[in-house]
Amino acid sequence: KIVLGIESSCDETGVGIVRLAGDGGMTLLADQVASSVDQHARFGGVVPEVASRAHLEAMVPTMERALDESGLSLSNVDAIAVTCGPGLAGALLVGVSAAKAYAAALDVPLYGVNHLAGHVAADTLQHGPLPPECLALLVSGGHTQLLKVEDLAGKITEVGSTIDDAAGEAYDKVARIIGLPYPGGPPIDKAARQGDPNAIKFPRGLTGPRDPKFDFSFSGLKTAVARWVEAREAEGKPIPVEDVCASFQESVADVLTAKAVRAAKELGIGTLVISGGVAANSRLSELARERCDQAGIELRVPRPRLCTDNGAMIAAVGAHVVAAGVRPSSLELPTDPGLPVDVVHV
Ligand code: ATP
Ligand code: MG
Ligand code: FE
Q1: Cβ-based neighbour number of residue 73 at 10 Å
Q2: Atom of ligand 1 nearest to the CA of 11
Q3: Which protein residues have their CB within 5 A of the ion that is ligand 3?
Q4: Which of 78, 95, 207, 290 is most buried, judging by how many CB atoms fall within 10 Å of its CB?
Q5: Cβ(77)–Cβ(66) under 8 Å?
Q6: Spatial contact of 174 and 143, defined as CB atoms under 8 Å apart
Q7: Which keywords fit this entry according to its UniProt record (predicted)?
Q8: Are 204 and 253 in contact (CB under 8 A)?
Q9: What's the ipTM?
């Protein structure tokens, strides 16, 4: 069966195509993404109206490129999966409307699926099926969550999440403070390689003895960076950008990996998947590798291309849902900007 996935929850228009074999095996046939990130750069964050318009312009060309890449035509498509939440309302609407139109015109079933399940499913396209139980650390511009995944077609539960900023959001805000471009992840990652991670002792959010064990907080860290930079400027001294980046990055990677490994141990789960845009961070994967090896936990991190928003991961959830024999969504499928993570398909 050929499952086509459409993603438009934020600033990436994605169309992916996956072949689902009779034995449940999946092959990635196409993964095309158009991003409007450059149009948001001067605002320092995603502008919803700009993103919606960009999706509208990119949807059909991205679909055509994905079909080209797969060597298939629309008549070969057996099912369509689409992100129906969570995400930006106007952005979601473009993808869901397109998916309904294609599903109706081709007379194939439509499946509204959860974007967050997509981030976890992305890993199965590279590393194969997940074990019966795994822990997922989802770290992106809009989300920072620890999830217990028992079934990609239906059983995902939240173990912990950020109480304020997402990890990627912290990267973007800190980049702005020290004058690096948006999105902040890549330039901070790069600058950090030249810096000393122990130069400045930045706080580790929510790691006190009475703090919630599996929740995260990054707004205090961002404020600490801002205060440090202000104090330095007040003294008339230059800002050691590389050291600030390395020290900030160390705090984020330390907290994320410590809590993920602790959760895996306490819940008795042997596999950790890290996904979302921040999973592309070099220090995060390095420290996760070190700590997982030490704890005897299997670590799975998909390649960066599959970590950031894309349509292939939505096709992958669609394929899991199709394989599980789930009832398709109605053509009235609504979008839900706040869709909870435990609702994998609507
Ligand atoms: P969401 O998936 O939560 O709806 P999103 O579209 O912002 O939101 P992604 O596209 O998965 O999420 O990730 C983008 C985020 O990842 C940005 O905040 C960016 O700064 C961050 N990021 C990208 N590369 C790196 C990196 N190497 N190190 C740290 N952060 C990174
Ligand atoms: Mg994005
Ligand atoms: Fe995402």
Answers
A1: 9
A2: 6
A3: 140, 309
A4: 95
A5: no
A6: no
A7: Acyltransferase, Cytoplasm, Iron, Metal-binding, Transferase, tRNA processing
A8: no
A9: 0.97
Strands 79-85 and 144-151: what pairing? unpaired
Helix (H, G, I), strand (E, B) or coil at 338: coil
- Distance from C-alpha of 184 to C-alpha of 248, rounded to nearest angstrom: 12
How much distance in Å is there from the Cα of 152 to the middle of ligand 3?
A: 16
Quote the Cα angle for 290-291-294, to 5°.
90
Q: What is the largest CA-CA distance in the chain?
A: 68
Please indicate whether residue 9, judged by its CB atom, sits closer than 6 Å to ligand 1: yes
Q: Is 275 in the pocket of ligand 1 (CB under 6 A)?
A: no
What's 197's DSSP letter? T
Whether the per-residue pLDDT at 102 is higher than 90: the answer is: yes
The runs of H, that is alpha helices, within 15-80 are 37-40, 48-70
- Give me 107's structure tokens: 């007379």
Burial of 105 (0-12, 13-18, 19+ CB in 10 A): exposed
| Listed residue (102, 50, 13) closest to 308, CA to CA | 13
Pairing outcome for strands 144-151 and 155-161: antiparallel
